[in-house]
Amino acid sequence: MDNKFKPALIGGVVTGILSVIPFVSAANLCCCLWAIVGGMIATYLYVKNSPTPANAGDGAVLGAIAGLVGAVISVVVGVPIALVMGPTMRNLFLSLMENVDPQQADLMRRQFEASGDAIAPLIIQSLIGAVLLFVFAILGGLIGVAIFEKRKGGAPPPPPINIS
After folding, report:
1. How far apart (Å, rounded) are the C-alpha atoms in residues 143 and 62?
2. Rounded to an integer, what distance in angstroms lies between the CA atom of residue 31 and that of residue 136?
3. Distance (Å, rounded) from C-alpha 11 to C-alpha 18?
4. Where would a tag sit more exposed on the chain, N or C end, judged by fewer CB atoms within 10 A?
5. Which sequence spans correspond to the domains of the chain?
């Protein structure tokens, strides 16, 4: 387990950090891209340094640990960042929306004003995102084994039998 923790920790930190950076985190809208990347990084680092071939179980464990680390970072760091950057992101989104459809932008502006800056929905959204990061990091670990593990698994073939 020790040889899995370091690669998984690195993959999890990548997942967590990229998932909380404003604008960069938008890539998570595409099937939790950073979670998959983090799971794949964990698997890549493990396969590179492992003396034995990795299997799907190893990829799932690596992805789970990376996903857990990424989820914790996403909640602990992401909520304060969202509180600070929320109004800025909303205003940017509304200004972009005004260029596309001014009526829709006005409707959204009224919805944002009605919802206010409540923290409870932000925490719930963050926890749901953390679960998704966890699940998709496991998927990334499984994909990583399929891509990066080129060695044949299983026990070595038995030695030839001498009949002398």
Report:
1. 11
2. 8
3. 11
4. C
5. 2-148
Contact 76, 95 (CB under 8 A): no
Cα–Cα dist 112/67, whole Å = 31
Amino acid identity at 87: P
Rounded to 5 degrees, what angle do the CA atoms 11, 43, 133 make? 45
Largest CA distance in the chain: 91
Q: Look up residue 118 and give its DSSP letter.
A: -
Residue 156 has pLDDT above 70, yes or no: no
Say if residue 3 is exposed, middle or buried (CB neighbours under 10 Å; 0-12, 13-18, 19+). exposed
- What is the Cα–Cα distance from 70 to 32, expressed in whole angstroms? 12
Please report the pLDDT score of residue 135 as a whole number. 97
Is pLDDT above 60 for 1? no
Quick one: tokens of 122? 């932000």
Q: Is the pTM of this model over 0.85?
A: no
Neighbours of 113 (CB within 10 A): 9
Q: Report CA Rg, the chain.
A: 22
Helix spans in the chain (H) = 2-20, 33-49, 56-100, 102-115, 119-148
